[in-house]
Amino acid sequence: MSTPLLAVENAGRSFGGFLALEGVTAAFQPGKVTSIIGPNGAGKSTFFNLLSGVLTPSSGSIRFKGRDLKGTPQHEFVHLGIARSYQITTIFPDLSVHENVRVAAQAGQWRYNIWINRKKLSDLDAKADSALEAVGLIGKRDETAKFLAHGQQRALEIAIALVSDPEVLLLDEPTAGMGPEETKDMVALLEKLATQRTILLVEHKMKMILGLSDRILVLHHGRLIADGTPHDIQTDPEVRRVYLGQNHGYA
Ligand SMILES: Nc1ncnc2c1ncn2[C@@H]1O[C@H](COP(=O)(O)OP(=O)(O)OP(=O)(O)O)[C@@H](O)[C@H]1O
Ligand SMILES: [Mg+2]
User: Fold this and answer.
1) Domain that holds residue 225
2) Which atom of ligand 1 is nearest the CA belonging to 48?
3) I want to staple 35 with a disulfide (CB 3.0 to 4.6 A). Which of 140, 166, 209, 221 is the partner?
């Protein structure tokens, strides 16, 4: 089999004496949508923190295109092609929609160009606008970010992650706090993005996950208890017991 895009081998992470993630092994092939589900506190965000360099694993390894990411600083993950959005909205509320994305585009350039020239600046503007175009926010380009609807703010966060043109996009609960209408829009956006990138998604909304995912991983108390197609996961007795049987899963 060819080298996976992203491979996690026996990865664990502890906080003090507490094991938030333990012995997780999984490999991700390009062009697929993989969802990570599990009850609150299962370790989903911790898993994303390891995959995006926010935290280093306490044990095990993470490889991107065969390269061990051990010791790689967080900002380098974006340059390699791994970008993410966060569970809690992390935009600059007082900047315009365009400025929010442009700041992210600039952050990717500054390390290399201290004397950034006029041409470069207009390139950054164009990059930012194309990310806004991709998430359907170009019409809101000059609005102050805090005045956007919640769903639009979540889409803006995705534009911020997209501006580096990542191969792998990690999205931590992109529909958190959304009602049915906003969720529908987000699903349409994710379907569009999935045609061009590898997406890892943390979500609680089961109907959405089952419809969108090629594959689902289930975490429980920091351990991977299942890994399979939506059909495998729906019919897995252990998964039903720890997760799907709970009321919150079917929203
Ligand atoms: N920085 C940290 N310091 C200490 N404990 C942490 C830290 N980050 C996460 N934890 C703990 O690790 C466990 C897993 O947390 P994590 O945020 O990964 O869960 P999650 O699956 O994303 O949950 P949720 O669905 O509520 O977002 C929890 O018990 C959490 O309290
Ligand atoms: Mg989380």
Assistant:
1) 1-81+167-251
2) 18
3) 209
Domain membership flag for residue 156 = yes
**Alpha carbon of 89 to ligand 2 centroid (Å):** 13
Q: Which residues line ligand 1 (CB under 6 A)?
A: 15, 20, 38, 40-46, 87
| Residue 160, both tokens | 């911020």
Measured in Å, residue 138 CA sits from the centre of ligand 2 at 29
Asked, for residue 19, whether it belongs to a domain, the answer is yes
Protein residue whose Cα sits closest to atom 11 of ligand 1: 20
Side-chain half-sphere exposure of 146, counting CA atoms within 13 A: 4
CA distance 162 to 82: 10
SS3 246: coil
Residue 86: inside a domain, yes or no? no
| Of the residues 132, 165, 198, the one at which a domain ends | 165
Shortest-distance ligand to the CA of residue 172: 2
pLDDT in tens, 112-164: 555 666 677 788 999 999 999 999 999 999 999 999 999 999 999 999 999 99
Ligand nearest, relative to CA of residue 20: 1
**Looking at the structure, do residues 72 and 184 belong to the same domain, yes or no?**
yes
Say if residue 181 is in the same domain as residue 124: no
What's the pLDDT tens digit per position in 12-47?
A: 999 999 999 999 999 999 999 999 999 999 999 999
Task: Find the 41 Cα to ligand 2 centroid distance in Å.
Answer: 7
Is 201 part of any domain? yes
